[in-house]
């Protein structure tokens, strides 16, 4: 499907449209109707998102995603109340963003305990954004059971006994998965740190 149309054309013929008329026109690929929708609701959606996120950059990204989704899904869009639809879309996007930040923060806390050298340094000094992302991706690549046990332990803070009961496994099996995952991650992170250090040296010496 084509991307959302650029804004700025004459929208006067659509300004009197009600919600349902506007949505019907959008479902029929009417780009001018989409422009009117954007013009009518952009500020409200932006205000709702900013109130939750307090970040202009993230707010702009989320608002763009929401309107882009409306256009891309226009043929199957089932909306009875546009303000309610946008409210729920903002809430969902904002919660996803905040949850991702919490998980990333917990990964970092785990990393600091996992690699002793990191305990006396700031996040900016030790990990670039790319390195943090690589670490998170490596965790996602763990075998499913090991990944689940890792997340239950380090992200949700559950004890070995609680996890064993929850997964119907022995505590010995839980410790095995944690030890195996930790050894894999420790080796991976040390290699990443070495690569980063070499890259920084190369940049310094030119």
Can you summarize this structure?
The protein is mainly α.
Molecular structure report:
The protein is built from 9 helices and no strands. The chain is an all-alpha fold and 206 residues long. It folds into 2 domains: 12-99, RNA polymerase sigma factor, region 2, helix turn helix motif (Rna Polymerase Sigma Factor, Chain: A, Orthogonal Bundle), CATH 1.10.1740.10; 115-205, Arc Repressor Mutant, subunit A, CATH 1.10.10.10. The radius of gyration is 24 Å and the shape is elongated.
Counting H and I runs of at least 4 residues, what is the number of helices?
9
Distance, first to last CA? 46 Å
Number of spatially distinct domains: 2
Assembly type of the shown chains? Answer: single chain
CATH class group of the largest domain: Mainly Alpha
| Principal-axes shape call | elongated
CATH topology of the largest domain: Arc Repressor Mutant, subunit A
Which regions are unreliable across 5 or more consecutive residues at pLDDT < 50?
1-10, 115-127
Fourth CATH level, the homologous superfamily of the largest domain: Winged helix-like DNA-binding domain superfamily/Winged helix DNA-binding domain
Helix content: over 70%
What share of the residues does DSSP label as strand, in percent?
Answer: under 5%
Order of helices and strands: HHHHHHHHH
CATH architecture of the largest domain: Orthogonal Bundle
- Round the Cα radius of gyration to an integer and report it: 24 Å
Offer a few descriptive terms:
about 210 residues; mainly alpha; Rna Polymerase Sigma Factor, Chain: A; Arc Repressor Mutant, subunit A; disordered N terminus
């Amino acid at each position: 499907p084509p991307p959302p149309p650029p804004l700025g054309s004459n929208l006067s013929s659509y300004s009197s449209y009600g919600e349902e008329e506007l949505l019907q026109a959008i479902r029929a690929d009417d780009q001018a109707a989409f422009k009117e929708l954007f013009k009518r609701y952009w500020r409200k959606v932006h205000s709702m998102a900013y109130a939750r996120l307090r970040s202009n950059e993230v707010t702009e990204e989320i608002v763009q995603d929401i309107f882009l989704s409306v256009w891309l899904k226009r043929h199957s869009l089932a909306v009875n109340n546009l303000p309610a639809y946008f409210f729920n879309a903002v809430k969902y996007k904002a919660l996803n963003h905040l949850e991702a930040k919490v998980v990333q923060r917990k990964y970092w806390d785990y990393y600091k305990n996992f690699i002793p050298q990191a305990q006396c340094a700031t996040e900016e000094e030790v990990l670039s954004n790319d390195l943090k992302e690589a670490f998170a991706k490596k965790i996602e690549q763990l075998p499913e059971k090991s990944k689940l046990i890792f997340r239950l332990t380090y992200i949700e803070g559950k004890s070995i006994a609680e996890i064993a009961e929850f997964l119907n496994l022995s505590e010995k099996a839980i410790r095995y998965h944690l030890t195996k995952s930790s050894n894999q991650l420790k080796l991976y992170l040390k290699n990443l740190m070495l690569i980063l250090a070499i890259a920084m040296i190369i940049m310094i010496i030119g």
